[in-house]
Design a protein that fits this description.
Helix 2 crosses helix 5, helix 3 packs antiparallel against helix 4 and helix 3 runs antiparallel to helix 6. This protein has six helices and four strands; from the N terminus they run H-H-E-H-H-E-H-E-H-E. The longest helix has 24 residues. Helix content is 42%, strand content 13%. The chain has a four-stranded antiparallel sheet with strand order 1-2-4-3. Bound molecules: flavin mononucleotide.
């Protein structure tokens, strides 16, 4: 695929339902290589990627996701999301995400990276990952519902205490076309020289 950067950016969006078509290691390697070209505070590159294909481990992640969603997420989101988005997130949290053939758990080594800059050093790499997946025609999503349950995810993946799960990104072929993302035009959120001076 030879999409321009701008076409890839404009196509990237959350996919929460996947076909069973597998994703090979070479593709994963390309995607994770792109992730590692992200900036990080002090160039400490604090990311650790756990690439989960194992069905039992994905089922354990799926179970954690469902419990997290049912315990806190759904009630919180019910009044905040549109019905269509709530239904999609619900589908993802109750099975769709974990059923992707690959689950990448993006983690942070808080000994290698500065704790204060952990999210800001991990999310750029995660965004690169999402864009690389999109460029290669794969579906993906940035999800955090499970990573709030750090200890449980650490147990599932055998992570040491100093390696924290930050995001769970499913990778696979979308079960159905995603359609275009909906975004407000940048000019609605941009100020010329001073706040509230329109672009
Ligand atoms: C910090 C963050 C956390 C998110 N957590 C979740 C999540 O737990 N579950 C989920 O389904 N989507 C999650 N998302 C994806 C957003 O819902 C999605 O990016 C947003 O609604 C835009 O939708 P689109 O990608 O379909 O355009 C998260 C996104 C961000 C940036």
């Amino acid at each position: 695929m030879s999409d321009s950067f701008f076409a890839v950016v404009a196509r990237q969006r959350a996919c929460r339902s996947f076909s069973e078509q597998p994703v090979d290691d070479e593709t994963i390697a390309r995607i994770l290589t792109a992730a590692t070209f992200a900036p990080s505070a002090e160039n400490k590159q604090p990311w650790e990627f756990v690439v989960v294909r194992d069905a039992d481990t994905r089922a354990a992640i799926g179970d954690l996701s469902r419990r997290a969603w049912e315990a806190r997420g759904r009630a919180f989101s019910e009044t905040r999301l549109t019905p269509a988005m709530l239904a999609d997130v619900d589908r993802g949290a109750t099975g769709g995400v974990a059923e992707a053939p690959v689950n990448v758990v993006v983690c942070a080594d808080v000994q290698r990276g500065l704790e204060a800059t952990i999210p800001s050093s991990i999310f750029p790499a995660t965004q690169n990952l999402l864009l690389a997946a999109t460029a290669l025609g794969l579906g993906s999503a940035l999800t955090t519902i499970t990573t709030g349950f750090r200890a449980e995810m650490q147990t599932i993946l055998g992570l040491p205490d100093h390696v924290w799960p930050i995001a769970l990104v499913p990778l696979g072929h979308p079960a159905r076309p995603l359609g275009p993302p909906r975004r407000a035009p940048f000019s609605n959120r941009t100020h010329r020289d001073r706040y509230n001076h329109p672009w």
